[in-house]
Design a protein that fits this description.
Layout lengths: L1 E8 L3 H15 L5 E8 L6 H11 L4 E6 L5 H11 L4 E4 L11 H9 L4 E5 L7 H19 L11 E4 H5 L11 H7 L4 E5 L15 H19 L3 H30 L6 H26 L10 E5 L1
Parallel strand pairs: 1-2, 1-4, 2-3, 5-7
Antiparallel strand pairs: 3-8, 4-6, 5-6
Helix pairs in contact: 1-2, 5-8, 9-10
Length: 308
């Protein structure tokens, strides 16, 4: 069995050597081969130079991908998973808050026929008001919407069978919902409690915009899950509803006009005409969506150099 560890990073130079030592301490003692794929997401602190030094010391284990600029965690995970050659793929953060000692316990869950094992940071060392409380609400809401009962969707420490990881389309802010995406693809998902450490170096790279982007991305994913292959079913239904209401009201006034021989422009007449126009627009959007579904998401990153 070969394990690929996919590790996105952005300005985490101080953590990398210690992280690699921790991974080696866990995996070198087991009958496993492994590769560590660092994805430098446009770091400016010399992180990639540090990775090249680590690669010289461990050329059989360390690989790297360097982006031309910062594209975000989803793009980094997509590139790393695409490059991974292992039977099992592990994703983890580079800030030393994820503990590699949980990897054997995750492997046991994989051996129990699960396809995705998600980490649960039951005891967290993050700021209460800026991370812990919002995360609890986020996890509750995501569980309710997605149908996947997990305590910690946003934990970056996860293990996948390779086929499950490579089935995921990761872009935008989708890295928050990978267990849900895997579940919707038909893979078995579970979670285990993992040790969470305090950040040792640097500061968090996630700002307040994650609170705004997260719900929008969840809405997008739910929509795509149900209507990606047939968007006209969604937009067309709304369009037909508006069109039917508008035609019904206009028909009433038309009959009244025939009976009385006079027609007065009323606000309801204008609203019904507007309803018909909106119905036509929604149906048109659905038709355009049907054409768009024939195209695939494009890669949202560019690679400057790699270490193989």
């Amino acid at each position: 069995m070969k394990i690929s560890l996919v590790i996105p990073l952005y300005n985490e130079r101080e953590s990398l050597a210690e992280l690699l030592r921790g991974i080696a301490a866990v995996l070198d003692t087991r009958d496993l081969t492994y590769e560590v794929i660092f994805i430098d997401d446009g770091s400016t602190d010399g992180s990639y130079d540090q990775i090249k030094m680590l690669a010289k010391d461990a050329p059989t284990h360390v690989k790297a991908i360097r982006f031309s600029r910062n594209f975000g965690k989803s793009a980094a995970l997509a590139a790393g998973i695409d490059a991974a050659t292992g039977d099992i793929i592990v994703t983890m953060d580079s800030d030393l808050q994820d503990d590699p000692t949980a990897i054997p316990d995750m492997l046991k869950k994989i051996e129990e026929s699960y396809d995705v094992v998600s980490g649960w940071k039951k005891k967290r060392f993050d700021p209460v008001f800026s991370k812990n409380i919002p995360s609890k609400f986020f996890n509750w809401f995501t569980s309710m919407i997605s149908g996947v009962k997990l305590h910690d969707f946003n934990c970056g420490f996860k293990m996948y069978r390779a086929e499950a990881a490579k089935s995921l389309e990761i872009y935008g802010e989708r890295h928050r919902y990978l267990p849900a995406l895997a579940h919707w693809n038909g893979y078995r998902v579970t979670e285990i409690v993992v040790t969470h450490h305090q950040r040792k170096y640097g500061v968090t790279k996630f700002g307040l915009n994650r609170f705004l982007n997260g719900p929008f991305d969840l809405l997008t994913i739910v929509f795509l899950r149900k209507y990606m292959k047939n968007p006209l079913h969604f937009f067309g239904t709304i369009g037909l509803l508006f069109g039917f209401l508008g035609c019904a009201v206009l028909s009433y006034f038309g009959i009244d006009w025939i009976r009385s021989g006079s027609m007065h422009i009323r606000p309801l007449v204008l609203l019904s005409m507007g309803s018909i126009i909106m119905g036509i627009q929604f149906i048109s959007i659905g038709l355009v969506g049907e054409m768009i579904t024939h195209s695939s998401p494009k890669k949202t990153y560019t690679i400057r150099e790699t270490i193989d």
